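Appendix C: a fully annotated inverse folding record. The material below is reproduced so that readers can follow the format used throughout the book. The structure is listed first as tokens, followed by the designed sequence.
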């Protein structure tokens, strides 16, 4: 059994520890507030939230729109960084099984970091992602994890813009979807949206 397969059995229903407490996993109480605070999402979506619309309601409306992929973008931006990365990991795990050895190792580390929040592990993930030969979906998720903290390395004090993690999670999930067979993409897209729904329904 590979490391990723072992991790699947141990981690597939185990969210980050910050999700275990009865606290919100969302950056902002409403999608409207998210769009005001993080205008970068406006460049990635066409459908705008209504002022008093809830997150689950908006997610469902995005799914029913002409560009349902925007539901992925919203989920990536709406969740707190570590939760968004965990959701991205779950999406990739559900969409693909043919990861390279490098990507499997990276995803193992991303999953463990999502549960532990260990900073040294996050720095290691960032190093692996930055020096990867190709920007695969797993590598993009690794970058998302690396960008989720105040620093990308122990000796790098430069602040990380808050939109970088959700943008990378979005790219990772959409990239994995794009590699699915065209006829199966609607089914796979529905699966990742269902994962997001579970996130929003719980809190």
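Designed amino acids, in order:
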């Amino acid at each position: 059994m590979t490391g990723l397969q072992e991790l699947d059995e141990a981690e597939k229903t185990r969210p980050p520890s910050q999700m275990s407490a009865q606290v919100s996993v969302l950056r902002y109480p409403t999608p409207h507030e998210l769009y005001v605070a993080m205008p970068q999402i406006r460049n990635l979506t066409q459908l705008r939230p209504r002022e008093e619309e809830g997150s689950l309601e908006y997610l469902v409306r995005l799914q029913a729109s002409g560009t349902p992929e925007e539901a992925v973008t919203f989920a990536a931006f709406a969740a707190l960084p570590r939760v968004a990365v965990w959701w991205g990991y779950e999406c990739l795990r559900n969409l693909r099984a043919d990861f390279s050895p490098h990507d499997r190792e990276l995803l193992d580390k991303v999953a463990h970091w999502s549960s532990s929040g260990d900073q040294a592990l996050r720095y290691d993930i960032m190093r692996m992602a930055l020096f990867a030969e190709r920007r695969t979906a797993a590598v993009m998720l690794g970058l998302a994890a690396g960008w989720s903290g105040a620093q990308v390395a122990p000796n790098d004090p430069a602040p990380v813009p808050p939109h970088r993690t959700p943008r990378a999670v979005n790219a990772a999930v959409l990239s994995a979807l794009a590699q699915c067979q065209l006829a199966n993409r609607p089914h796979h897209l529905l699966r990742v949206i269902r994962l997001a729904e579970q996130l929003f329904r719980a809190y």
